[in-house]
Fold this protein.
Amino acid sequence: QVQLVQSGGGFVQAGESLTLSCAVSGISASGNDINWYRQAPGQQREWVATIYSYSGSTNDYAHSVKGRFTISRDDAKNTVYLQMSSLKFEDTAVYYCNAIINYQDYWGRGTQVTVSS
């Protein structure tokens, strides 16, 4: 059974940093592409970043977060992280980790990030 268990998030001031975690079970995080998405109030869910299973690939980021967010993976812990720095008010959203395994979408339960301006 594939499970993505999220932790982290919270309330911060603009300019501060937060790290989100996505603990993966049932599959190897290193053997699959893992994504982060976010959904702001009244908005559609949007893609934020992807870390690829192929170690030679460059991670991808949405334009809005490139240079501020870093996606990484700890293979020993089978966990994917999203390090967020220089947070802005517009980064306020519920963040979800995601994996597509055999054409099926798996989602974490989401974690709230609130950035105060």
User: Anything to note?
Assistant: The longest strand covers residues 93-101. The mean pLDDT is 94. DSSP finds no helices and eleven strands in the chain. Residues 100 and 106 are 6 Å apart (CA to CA).
